[in-house]
Amino acid sequence: MPTPQPAPHRAGTRPVRVGRVQIGGGAPVSVQSMTITDTRDVEGTLVQIYQLAAEGCEIVRLAVPDREAAEALAAIKPRSPLPIVADIHFDYRLALLALESGVDKLRINPGNIGSRERTRIVARAAKDRGVPIRVGANIGSLSKAILRRFGGPTAEALVASALEDVAVLEDLDFHDIVISVKAEVPMAVDAYTMIAAQTRYPLHVGVTEAGTAWAGAIKSAAGIGAILARGIGDTIRVSLAADPVEEVRAGFEILKSFGLRTRGVQLVACPSCGRAEVDIIQIAQEVERRLARLNAPIKVAVMGCAVNGPGEARMADFGIACGRGMGLLFKRGKIIASLPEERLVDALMEQVESAASSMAAAQGAPAPEAAFMDTAAPQDAAVSTGRAAPTDAAVRDTAGTGDPAAATDTAARDTAGTGDPDAVTDTAAPGEATTPAGTAVSGAGAERASR
Ligand code: SF4
Fold first, then answer.
1. Which of 32, 35, 33, 34 is nearest to 449 (CA)?
2. Of 131, 193, 125, nearest in space to 159 by CA
3. In this structure, which topology does domain 266-362 adopt according to CATH?
4. CA-based torsion, 51, 56, 62, 63: positive or negative
């Protein structure tokens, strides 16, 4: 008999609303990222926000280093398809300006905002506007007092620092709080585990010093994954020294691997070995590229041989097991065709696309092609709304797939992963928020606006 598992921490956290996204209270674990543009560059920042939204990002954080950046938020916020978090350090007046600009959440580090009184001023203003605050304790920014008390930067010190900040907000009867205690992987795991035992506020999970796209994604998968596996974590950000779109992709992959989110089609591919009689890596990459435009809870397997391939392909919704010059096509455990190698991928995609369309129709959502048509008409939308004409920034191939349909299709996805067609409209509706004008973007790895 399986051992009963305790309810995950995230099931019982206090729900906090960040724009239209709920953090905590058992809501789906949301994926955040942070723009790397100069926030003062309104158009460039909006282009990047649209790229992030197209990839499924649900909350975006913007650095607010000075007054000009804080004032730019007022121009960015009404045109942003995503809830905006203003990231403030050192100057509490910037937090007040950000609130006036209508941001959806503040991230402050009370340890560097100047004084408790200044934190109180910010908290009062946030409370008046119903805006939540994340108090972010970070291993690199612990106060001298805390470091003295704990003898250095430790998980206990991080937790104590965060809870002190929380106490300041609670004194003001402010409870729309999200907490983070970021550190390197082992300490972060300890700190999140400790703080989860002491608070019901939702937790924003991440690790510090993550690194480049490759190494950072692995560190984040290890750290964030270990924390999520303990039932802890209501929202995540993978921090990478890379295009922030990669952070969103990595975030969803981590969540998908725990079955916490189902965004996009799940592809499993065998690692290939000496038994493979086809170039399975190339086939898997092609399937991955073609699946990138679909968002349906479908599992697809691409296997390299007739030894283990058929068994694993059978466990997916659809799969192929390749052999010499031919292969088998599986649908929910049954072989439905034996095909020449050159037909396999097309036949697999026909099955997957048909299933995705049926699922979308059952949910009342537009079929992939219809979604593409909707989002491909930004000019009409601009004319009808009288707003600035969007460029093709949001309709380019942000997935880097080489397929222009991929971006628009992705932009029309249910970014909240709720299966709620309204969520599709929220992100995709061109009349809801104008895309930035006059800024050239081409693909996820494209040049970004000035930094
Ligand atoms: S499915 Fe076949 S080719 Fe792929 S790793 Fe397993 S044994 Fe090797």
1. 35
2. 193
3. Sulfite Reductase Hemoprotein; domain 1 (3.30.413)
4. negative
Nearest residue by C-alpha to atom 7 in ligand 1: 308
Residue range 209-261, pLDDT digits in tens: 778 899 999 999 999 999 999 999 999 999 999 999 999 999 999 999 998 99
Atom of ligand 1 nearest to the CA of 308: 1
Distance CA 436, CA 79 (A): 8
Q: Is the dihedral of CA 181, 51, 62, 73 positive or negative?
A: negative
- Give the whole-angstrom CA distance, residue 364 versus residue 207: 39
Q: Which of 279, 307, 315, 322 to mutate to test the pocket of ligand 1 (most atoms within 8 A of CB)?
A: 307
Question: CB under 8 Å, gap of 24 or more: what pairs does 354-362 form?
Answer: 355/296, 355/298, 355/317, 355/318, 356/265, 356/294, 356/295, 356/296, 356/298, 359/296, 359/297, 359/298, 360/296
Q: What does the pLDDT look like over 14-27, one tens digit per residue?
A: 999 999 999 999 99
Residue 58: count of CB within 10 angstroms of its CB:
29
Q: Can you read off the two tokens belonging to residue 56?
A: 């499924």
Q: Which residue has the tokens 């506007």?
A: 129
Say how far apart CA 205 and CA 182 lie, in whole Å. Answer: 7
Contact 229, 199 (CB under 8 A): no
Q: Could you tell me how many residues make up the chain?
A: 451
Ligand 1 atom 6 nearest Cα:
308
Give per-residue pLDDT as tens, 253-284. Answer: 999 999 899 777 888 898 888 888 888 889 99
* Amino acid at residue number 130: G
**Structure-block tokens of residue 65:** 């280093």
**Amino acid occupying residue 169:** L
Q: Does ligand 1 lie within 6 Å of residue 270's CB atom? A: yes
Distance of alpha carbon 53 from alpha carbon 412, whole angstroms: 9
| Domain boundaries defined on the chain | 9-257, 266-362
CATH architecture of 9-257: Alpha-Beta Barrel (3.20)
* Range with top average pLDDT, 9-18, 138-147, 252-261, 371-380: 9-18
In whole angstroms, give the CA distance from residue 182 to residue 357. Answer: 41
